[in-house]
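A quick aside before the break. I want you to see a complete sequence-to-structure record at least once, exactly as it would be stored in a machine-readable document. Don't worry about memorizing anything.
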Amino acid sequence: MNESSAMMEQAFEKFDIGLLDKALEAGADINAQVAGVPLLSDAFWTNSDAIRNGLDQSYIRQVKEFIKYAIEKGLDINAYEVDGGMKYPILFQSCHYLKNQNITEFLLQNDADPNFMVADHDFFKEKLNMHNVENHSLLDAIMDEFDNETHIGYYDFAKAYHDDYLLLIAYGAKPAELLDGSHGMPRHIYDAVMSLDAEKLRILSRDECNRIDIILTFYGRFGYPKLFYYHPDEFQEKLIMALDAVISKLGIDNLSPTLLCDCVANEWPDVVDFLLSKGVDPNINCSSETFKDISSSALDYLGRISFVFKRENYERMKTSLMNANAKINKKTYYYE
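That is the input. The structure line, written in tokens, reads:
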């Protein structure tokens, strides 16, 4: 490494504008890479702890001023490294190393591409003679990291990835492809619902469109997890944990009004008991797409489709609802 290149590397490592000017005057390349890694990505890794904590606001301002100045001097903010068959741009490495949404949004405001293709079939076919690479966007890659962190129990990191995900969405990011069979539901939400991962859902439940109590209304449309078919008791146990995660965030008053009826209609007596124990109103009007022309309570639902239930489940849910002072709507059909 020559002297000007070393000076450029130090300028990025220290976020030093004066040193950057000296390196440029000496002929150094602002878009040089260190072992195939863009200088800014490398600087993010080197200074990850200080930036991630974000406690020194003057330092964060220095980082942002340096990046802005470097872009004005010709820095390619969408430069990337290739690792393991994937292209990782500076924006991804910011999310990966820093977990600081202040910096993530700053990069997006300065033309970092929210729809960067981390894996691009055509690119890898042409450049690396790899023929089986599926398209994979930056958004997909961020949610892969979210999945990894929740799987190993690093929930603070998982939340940071989810916050980055929300920022990317706000700046127009889209997944490369929706999963087959997800019916338009974003992949990470579909995965969370189908796996019934309580901690993952606890994070995702901060957003209206991601809440499992709302998604349950459409469960039949998406299909059920294999656990539902092969281990129904375990399925109800995990579903209760997932719903508890939502209730702990929202309280019962903000739950989907059709939730209790959906659980009755799906013949989940354990979940019905859980919701009633939390204080869910058994007489709430829970009209749905199926019975949208009828004002229905959970007990009406139970009576209307009682003929498809196991008798023991029917009797148990009926007893639980009546003990909770459930009323019958006389305009609907009810079977004893």
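Two observations worth writing down. Residues 1-177 form a domain with the Serine Threonine Protein Phosphatase 5, Tetratricopeptide repeat fold (CATH 1.25.40.20). The chain is about 55% helix and 5% strand. We'll return to this after the break.
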